[in-house]
């Protein structure tokens, strides 16, 4: 107990001077020392400034807020509209692309078929002219039922067979159309001779 005059404390609190501090006397010592210490404790410094009230958000201008909200809404609506417009344009472009591809594909197919029809047409012409001295003889061979005209079935059946050719159906159909110039469904001799 540095700096504490223990003898002075003893004499001050030893009420029944027996040279000892009993519990009651000691309790008084402790109480007084505690009080003294509390009195000596430095007080917290008093702030020269009053504590600032917490910052309040600026007053809300309801009208301004509503206007901003409306603007936001309009911007979003505009963006959605633009987005939909772009999507629509993309869809249209895709349809155009698809149709173009379809048209190109169709044209390619027709070009290829034309090429084949032309190929078989020339081949048959050459075969007929080489193998038969006259168109009449060839015509009579194809006209299997001797009806005096060739019907499409006769042409389809006999013409390729006579020259051991396999002609695709679609090409054969075109050759028949090409030969049956008047479109009456029968191939007359004049029609046959004109084409082959
Ligand atoms: Ca016939
Ligand atoms: Ca005809």
Automatic annotation (TrEMBL):
Can you give the residue ranges of the EF-hand domain?
Answer: 130-165, 167-196
The ranges of region (Disordered) come to 39-60
Say if the entry is tagged with keyword Repeat: yes
Q: Name one GO molecular function term.
A: calcium ion binding
Q: Which domain of life is it from?
A: Eukaryota
Which residues lie in Pro residues bias regions?
42-60
Which CDD domains does the record cross-reference, listed alphabetically? EFh (cd00051)
Keywords, sorted A to Z: Calcium, Repeat
Name the SUPFAM superfamilies on file.
EF-hand
Q: Does the keyword Repeat apply?
A: yes
Q: Which Pfam families match?
A: EF-hand_7
The record's section on PROSITE patterns has: EF_HAND_1, EF_HAND_2, IQ
Record-linked PANTHER family: CALCIUM BINDING PROTEIN (PTHR23050)
Query: Mind telling me what this protein is named?
Result: EF-hand domain-containing protein
Organism equals Chrysochromulina tobinii
């Amino acid at each position: 107990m540095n700096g504490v005059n223990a003898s002075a404390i003893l004499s001050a609190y030893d009420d029944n001077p027996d040279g000892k501090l009993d519990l009651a006397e000691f309790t008084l010592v402790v109480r007084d020392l505690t009080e003294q210490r509390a009195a000596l404790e430095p007080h917290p410094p008093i702030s020269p400034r009053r504590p600032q009230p917490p910052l309040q958000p600026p007053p809300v201008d309801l009208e301004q807020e509503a206007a901003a909200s409306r603007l936001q809404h309009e911007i979003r609506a505009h963006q959605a509209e633009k987005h939909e417009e772009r999507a629509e344009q993309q869809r249209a472009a895709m349809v155009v692309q698809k149709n173009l591809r379809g048209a190109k594909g169709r044209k390619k197919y027709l070009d290829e078929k034309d090429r084949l029809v032309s190929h078989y047409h020339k081949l048959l012409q050459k075969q007929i002219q080489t193998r038969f001295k006259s168109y009449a003889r060839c015509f009579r061979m194809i006209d299997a039922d001797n009806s005096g005209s060739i019907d499409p079935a006769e042409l389809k059946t006999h013409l390729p067979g006579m020259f051991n050719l396999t002609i695709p159906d679609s090409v054969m159909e075109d050759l028949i159309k090409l030969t049956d110039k008047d479109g009456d469904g029968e191939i007359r001799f004049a029609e046959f001779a004109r084409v082959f």
